[in-house]
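Continuing the series of single-chain predictions for the mutant panel. This is the parent chain; the variants come on the following pages.
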Amino acid sequence: MKFPSSLPPLRLALAASGFAAAVLVTSIVANPKPPVPALNNGAEYVGEAICIACHQPQNTQFTHTLHANVFRLNPKNEQEKISCEACHGPGSNHLKDPVSPSNRSSLVGFTREWGTPVALQTAMCQSCHAGAGQTFWDGSVHATNNLSCSDCHNPMAKLSSGGLLKKPSINETCYTCHQQQRAEFAKRSHMPLLEGKMTCVDCHNPHGSTTKGMLKADSINETCYSCHAEKRGPYLWEHAPVRDNCLSCHNPHGSNHDKLLNVARPFLCQQCHGNAQGHQSTLFNAGGAIGGGGAPSTRIFGRSCQNCHSQVHGSNHPGGARLQR
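Parent structure:
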């Protein structure tokens, strides 16, 4: 194998001893430079030291974050080595007029007030955070509602135990927009978020998924089965609405009725079971049959219909056709 005579003697020696490929690649391929955002109009990188000279308070906050540790201690590429400008873009144009509001376009800002388009903010984040849990961000409910990463995350300060969230916890971050769900979690029967046993992301992927509601599983039922495996079945005798959708009977976030039920029993059951020839068509309340007077019916005590039909999710007993055993 012949090598170019223009190579230095040392490289010729290395090539002769079996390191030709490594030497030639090193001599041809230069270290790649970080991408320059189009918004910055030919600006150049000035280095982290220049940024810190003016932005000392921001540096103090940033020092405690995961980003700072990665960029400064263990960068995996050239882009991460430049620290501040890896996210905000090259800063030379910013130095020319650092205080004028009209010069804000010289940097990528991550606040609503700064004015950087949301699409550009997201693109800067996705230059590192792409794939995996962020695969379905484009087209997700959050993306189509023009949310940016910084609406939920604060990469410049450690305000949460993980994820660089803008609030101390995942749940509080979600509550910023989802006030209806926050109210439901405060009801007497609720998912144990307030007790710290789970978080919103145990069921949802806030960065998008293939299902409605950004669920982490393929369907509502599959999501519920991840914790409630005993309800999965298969059953010899199936309860059709249970098989169809858990939300037919339950509110997934919280309810003022037992077991997160949408409606109190027996009225929940009577929404479907209203056979005029059977006992289930009689409407009961605390005073007995409505319109009939008399003593209270035993069918409204305890678990109501489930006092007898105890296996309401399904039964594997040979005699369980009515879900009684």
